[in-house]
Amino acid sequence: MHRSLVLYSEPADPDHFRDYYVNNHLPLVMKWPGLLAWRYSFDVAAIEGEAPYFAVFEADFADAAAMHAARASPHGQRVAADVVNYATGGLVVIHYPVQDGTG
């Protein structure tokens, strides 16, 4: 599995971010081709001190190729273009293969 992780910094208008994200952006995300699972949270906290991020989003794909194909698709480009409508504080996007562990 391959994961894309989006870390959102504090936006200019947190209420607008939450509303737009849930009602407009996530419905677009749900239609991403090849998307296996997704998760998000606005309740980002640090173990110590203040968290550097306002919100987090995770998307899982079968592999890196599936993620890249989804991002490059017309729908993926539409998802990316929509970010300016709510993420006024900026964001960081990283991706990585997920290694399962047991303990």
UniProtKB/TrEMBL annotation:
Domain (EthD): residue spans on this chain: 10-88
Superkingdom of this protein's organism: Bacteria
Residue ranges the record marks as coiled coil: none
One MF annotation (Gene Ontology) recorded for this entry: oxidoreductase activity
Database matches in Gene3D superfamilies: 3.30.70.100
PANTHER family referenced in this protein's UniProt entry, alphabetically: BLR8190 PROTEIN
Protein name: Ethyl tert-butyl ether degradation protein EthD
Organism annotation: Streptomyces chattanoogensis
Taxon lineage: Bacteria, Bacillati, Actinomycetota, Actinomycetes, Kitasatosporales
